[in-house]
Amino acid sequence: MDKIKVIHDVQGHTLTVWFGNPTTEAVCEETTDEVVLMKDAAGRVIGFEMLHYTPASSDAGLTVETVVRT
Fold this sequence. Notes:
There is one protein chain. The protein is mostly beta strands. The chain has no helices and five strands. The chain has a five-stranded antiparallel sheet, with no helix packed on it. A hairpin with a 5-residue loop joins strand 4 and strand 5. 4% of the residues are buried.
């Protein structure tokens, strides 16, 4: 199973999610919703970054839901 890497930069107010290898990043593309898509050389999205991110609550926890389909 692939790993997902989530980074919350409190000072920079960003949330970055990688579901591919960050070292294969070739290009970034900003959308109109202040979301940056990170793509590999083949144009596949390998991650995204939300700009101006602030959590909905002050809880330090992170809730993750996993769905496995066979």
